[in-house]
Structure to design on (254 residues):
């Protein structure tokens, strides 16, 4: 988040709208660009009014002074309560609460906020139960992540863990199969049977999964490549793998 006099800001229409829909009690005030009048602004104002949240109009210069040189879309929310974050302690209860097969996304060391935001958005659309990532050497839920995620950061649990290898061991104890995406794997995702409760594990941009993470996986799978480029952006790879899992699950239900 962006800290400003002990306040925190979220910006962009989808991120702010999701905050107002899901946790309006965390929002102290809404700031709008005084020159913007459209359907999205009206939706924000309506939700703010329903929740008795004050709305202020500011110049673009003053909005930039708050959040910096970012694409805020003329919509900024000031929060006084930090959004709820989760750690590994919630995993047993979260998994036990699901009546159907669990689908988790584990991201090992994603540092680009745009990639994390895109992964969260895809995970939400794919019906992922939760996204798990390490606390260290990885990006957290920054304002950029929330904006790119387009509301997914407010609705899909994001669990930051202190020790990823230990968390993967816990998932195994909770009967979760671990499928690691690795370009050196012999088996590709299209001839792999994804069944039951599982976690899809992907590594950081360029480096891939760390050694301990890879060794913790039950299976290693790859996306087949047919061109000259040796690898995919992690958010693109996440989407391809997740929706192959979704496709197989839907076929199994027919």
């Amino acid at each position: 988040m962006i800290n400003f006099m002990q306040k925190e800001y979220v910006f962009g229409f989808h991120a702010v709208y999701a905050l107002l829909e899901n946790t309006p009690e965390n929002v102290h005030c809404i700031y709008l660009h005084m020159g913007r009048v459209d359907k999205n602004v009206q939706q924000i104002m309506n939700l703010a009014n329903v929740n008795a949240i004050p709305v202020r109009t500011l110049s673009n210069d003053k909005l930039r002074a708050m959040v910096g040189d970012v694409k805020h879309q003329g919509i900024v929310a000031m929060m006084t309560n930090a959004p709820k974050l989760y750690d590994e302690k919630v995993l047993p209860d979260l998994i036990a609460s699901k009546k159907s097969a669990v689908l988790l996304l584990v991201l090992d060391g994603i540092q680009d906020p745009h990639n994390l935001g895109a992964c969260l958005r895809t995970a939400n659309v794919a019906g992922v139960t939760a996204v798990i990532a390490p606390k260290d050497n990885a990006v957290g839920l920054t304002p950029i992540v929330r904006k790119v995620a387009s509301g997914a950061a407010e609705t899909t649990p994001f669990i930051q863990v202190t020790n990823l290898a230990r968390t993967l061991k816990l998932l195994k104890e909770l009967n979760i199969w671990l499928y690691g995406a690795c370009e050196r794997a012999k088996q590709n995702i299209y001839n792999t049977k994804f069944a039951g409760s599982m976690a899809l594990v992907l590594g950081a941009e360029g480096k891939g999964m760390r050694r301990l993470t890879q060794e913790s996986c039950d299976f290693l799978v790859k996306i087949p490549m047919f061109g000259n480029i040796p690898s995919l952006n992690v958010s693109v790879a996440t989407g391809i793998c997740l929706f192959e899992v979704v496709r197989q699950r839907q076929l199994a239900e027919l």
